[in-house]
Amino acid sequence: MSNLINNKDLEFLLYNVFNAEQLTQLPRFAEHDRTTFDSILNTAQRIAVDYFAPHNAKADANEPQFDGQNVTTIPEVKQAWQHFADSGLLCAKHDYDEGGMQLPSLLHMAANSFFMSANPATAGYPFLTSAAANVIHAFGTEEQKAMFVPAMFSGRFAGTMALTEPDVGSSLGDLSTKALPAEDGSYRIKGQKMYISGGDQDITENIVHLVLARIEGAAKGSKGISLFIVPKFITHTDGSLAERNDVQLAGLLHKMGYRGTTSTVLNFGEQDNCTGYLLGEAGKGLLHMFMMMNEARIGVGLGAAMIGYRGYLESLNYARNRPQGRAATEKSPDSKPINIIEHTDVKRMLLAQKSYVEGSLALCLLAARLVDEQEAGNDADAGILLDLLTPMVKSFPSFYGPRANDLAIQVLAGAGYTRDYPVEQYYRDNRLNPIHEGTHGIQSLDLLGRKLWQHNGKGLKLLMARMHTTLTSAAQKPQLSELVGEFEQYLALVQSTTLKLGGALQQGQVDEALANSAIFLDMMGKTVVAWLWLEMADKALETFADSSNTEDQDFVAGKLQAAQYFIRWELPEIELQARLLQRFDRSCLDMQSDWF
Known about the structure:
Elements: H1 7-17, H2 34-52, H3 56-61, E1 65-66, E2 71-72, H4 75-86, H5 105-118, H6 120-139, H7 142-154, E3 157-162, E4 178-181, E5 187-197, E6 206-215, E7 225-231, E8 233-235, E9 241-244, E10 247-252, E11 263-268, E12 275-278, H8 285-321, H9 344-375, H10 380-412, H11 423-430, H12 440-449, H13 458-474, H14 481-506, H15 510-514, H16 517-543, H17 550-570, H18 574-582
């Protein structure tokens, strides 16, 4: 086990739970096998350990600086970027003839997990770049793709997405950034964007911003928004650089965590000369950008899971080696102190962390598996299920990852609250994830107000079918049959609650049905993760049933215990949530501003 991830856990998830080798039966992945998969994972782990992890604390303590002209990052960030780019991981999912590896999303996400655990701030630059390049690749003209994509895939250029404005957060339909048509077919962009991660830096030759703006005269609201490619430097068709574009850094934002990634305020068109190129169709900017946003939402979930995972491993190691106190039954003052991992309350905190982070990683890898089924397997149902799960993939790890980090600090006690140990940084880094790419509340409105009912509720039916398959298998195993019965009772409660909320929405009781959507999202997330814990426990029993290896036996026992913990300690919280939802509790809805 490294201090980045439990490799046995990752291997188990990939090959035993999500059947990564089965993907090689699809034509797109036919040239791969487990050997190539493992080789890529080993490369990712080596780069993460050698070039990302060592400067995680240094980048936090020495955040990027802006002298009014240029941004400066510590040298290790550029070095890590270059090793990542040279590995081919920036374009790993793309075709061989484009320099890619035609790597399944499942394996790509597994590779990315090492970087998110090692140094999420530095990892932010390549992940944003890959996502931005994917949008240009999907919707750009041949000229646009030739101009930007190869340079982004090779690491010469970086990418960002510029959505948020000072007065417009998630309500993108209200944005005010303008795009004025120019005679040459390009546009002149004018406006200000903020919280732009990677919006300026000194690690690449150029930065390609994907900017949402409204073409002059376009309709108000989201239907009038278009997407534009706005490079920091004007770029020739062969990818070489021309003059500086009218994109100015107004300043860097100073964050609680994630400090190694620049967070910027950008002014577009201060001199009325900011060139932008329409990407895709006019008026469909949000639709095009959602490709990047959905990819980013799953990426945020992975980041939250892995920062939580790193904190869990740190606190686990500390607990195993920190002697303090004695068993309650030990009365002799001459007895030796025991390591704190022997204390039941410390076990509770470690079990909670294990259940959160391993469950979150499984959820993220499930999403990646569905991407492969949808795109390479042409399975429309997989896409429908992925669409339903995406709010949970973003929000469950983002909510419970920081909780895991909070518990990691508690395990270390006073040491955990100091900068001499890394867990306080992990908490600060992870606290961003419930905020960006759509807050918990926004994801909950998306799930309950829209995603559940798309395709006549087919996504939920598909999810229930997969759950039923797991329950049928697990119920046949004596070690799991009792847990299956407990889970089924809670699942019935979730189903009845969902039906009641759906009925209210159909009858026009929109405010009442959506008022408590945040707890509905949490309820759904816990239910899905509880199902995944049963799936992991079931597969662990099958995989290692005949093993006499102590490590294998301990692994299985750990999975069973974590599944039991989650279903008996965490899942019962949905009883209160269901009660509040089914009675359409108005405590929050009826609260008035003046009453606070």
